[in-house]
Design brief:
about 110 residues; 6 strands; alpha+beta; globular; six-stranded antiparallel sheet
Length: about 110
């Protein structure tokens, strides 16, 4: 992966609430990492915002594909607990989700 993010840029504490309120209308949650942080992606702003209990951080993707961020979290930040982004067919994704639900029901 070229130009991979090495650090998440910390948002100014005084703008945390404003940033959340001013989040792009297209932003959607792409997942929750293993540390419980929520990751939101905006195509309009070309960035990912990570929400971690008031310590919000934003990272510009600089025209890199979202899959690079997904891989960065997987490889450098411990991975994903859950994600709303997938590659491949819808059927394969639904089958995977069903398998997870069945496994959780057995516990």
């Amino acid at each position: 992966m070229t130009n991979s993010p090495t650090a998440v840029v910390k948002a100014d504490a005084s703008t945390d609430d404003d940033q959340r309120a001013d989040q792009a209308s297209d932003a959607f949650m792409i997942g929750i990492d293993t540390d419980g942080r929520e990751h939101y992606f905006s195509r309009i702003r070309d960035c990912v915002t990570v929400i971690d209990g008031g310590d919000d951080q934003t990272q510009s993707l600089d025209d890199r594909p979202l899959k690079d961020w997904m891989a960065f979290v997987e490889q450098e930040l411990g991975g994903w607990d859950e994600t709303n982004v997938y590659s491949g067919s819808t059927f394969a994704h639904l089958a995977h989700q069903l398998g997870n639900a069945v496994t959780a029901g057995e516990a």
